[in-house]
Amino acid sequence: MLGLKSVIFPVCAALCAIAFLYKLLDVRKGSRDPALIALLAAFLCKGVSFVLSTPAVSAGVDRFSGVSNLGALGIHLMGGASSSAAFLIAIVHWVHPRDVARARTRMLLTATALCATAMLVLWWAGDDGSGQRSQHYLLQNAHRPVTAAYLLLYVTAFGAGLVEIIRLSLRYGKVSGRAWLRRGLHCTAAGAAAYLVYCLNRAWAVVAVQLDLAPLDWEAVTPLSNGIGITFLAAGLTMPSWGPRLSAARQRTDHFLAHQKLHRLWSDLCAASPNIALSPPERSRLVRFAPYDINYRLYRRVIEIQDGILALRPYMPEEPDGATADAEAALVAAAIDAKMREVELPEEPPTVTSFVPSDVDYAGEVSRLVGVARAYSALVKQGQGGEQ
Fold first, then answer.
1. pLDDT tens across 341-370, in order?
2. Which end of the chain has the lower number of beta carbons within 10 A, N or C?
3. From which domain of life does this come (predicted)?
4. Where are the domains of the chain?
5. Are 49 and 33 in contact (CB under 8 A)?
6. Cβ distance 174 to 186 under 8 Å?
7. Is 30 exposed, middle or buried (0-12, 13-18, 19+ CB in 10 A)?
8. What is the three-class DSSP state of 213?
9. What's the whole-model pTM score?
C-alpha cells in the first residue's frame, strides 16, 4: 500500500503544482481577484499535503522535526479543511455577487480557523508519549477516543466543504451562460464526489476497528480516490481559463483545414478572374500552409470565392440543376472552362439567382463552400471541367 501511495501522491502533487503555476500566470500587477487568490491557496495547500502524504516525505518530516506524526497533522490541516475551504471560496466568488461572496468568505475562514485549532488540540492530546511514529496515523489510532474524535472532526470539516462544493457546482453549472464555466463546475463536482468517497472511507474506519475489522485491507481507496478527485478538481477549476483557449485553437484548426480545402476552387477562380484576389495566389507551398492570421485569410478566401462565382454568372444557365454542392460545382467548373476558352457571351447574358441561402451565417457559408470545393476538386480530377 505504501508503494501505491509513493507513486500516486507525487503525481497528485505535480498536478497541483501545474495548476498552481498555470493560475499564477493570471496574476496581474495590482490585481486582487479573490477567486484567483483562493485557487492559488487551494492548490498550494493541496500540493503540500500530497508531498507530505508521500510516505518517505512524511517520515522525513517527523525525523527532522523530532515530533512524531507531525507530517500527518500537516496532511490533514493543509489537505483537508484548509484546501476545501479555499476551493469553496473560489467557487463562491464565481457564482455569488461580491458582497454575498465576501460575507461567506469571512464565515468560511472563521470556521476553518476554529476547526484547525480544534484539530491541533486533539492531535496534541492524542499523543501517547511513546514517541513512536505511526505509518498510518488515523487507521492505527482510530481505536483511541481522542484520535477518533480528531479523525471525525477532520472528515466532517473536509466532507462538509466538499458537499457544499458539489451543491454549488451542480446548481450554478446548470444555469451558467458560459459553456466552459458550466463544464468546469460539473467537473469540479465530480472531483469533490470522489473526495467524498475518501472521507466516508476514513469515517468508516472508526466503526470498523470497533467491529474488529482491519481498515488497512481497503486502504487502496485512499490513493485512488485522492488521485481521481484532484484530477477532476484541478481540471474543473482551471477549465474556465484554458477551455476558451482550447475552443479558439480548435476553431483556428478548423479554419486552417477549410482554407486548404478551398484552395483549388479559389485558385481556379483567380485564374479565370484575377481581379477578385486581394493578393495573388501563393507560389510557395510553405506560404500556403503557413497558419498565420488564418481567421482573416479564410474570411478573405470566402469573400473572393463568392466574388469569383459572381463574376462567372454570365457563363452560367439561369437555374442550377438542384441546389446541391455537386450541382453548383458542375456549374462553376463549366463556367470557368467557358471563361478560360473565351466563349462568346450572348448579347443579353442570362441572370442567375445566388446559391447562397438568405439566412446562412458565416460558419454555414464556409461549410457550404467547402462542400462545393470538394465536389469541384473531384470534377477536376475526373477531367470533366476546370483548369488542371
1. 888 776 665 555 556 666 678 899 999 999
2. C
3. Bacteria
4. 2-243, 262-381
5. no
6. no
7. exposed
8. coil
9. 0.81
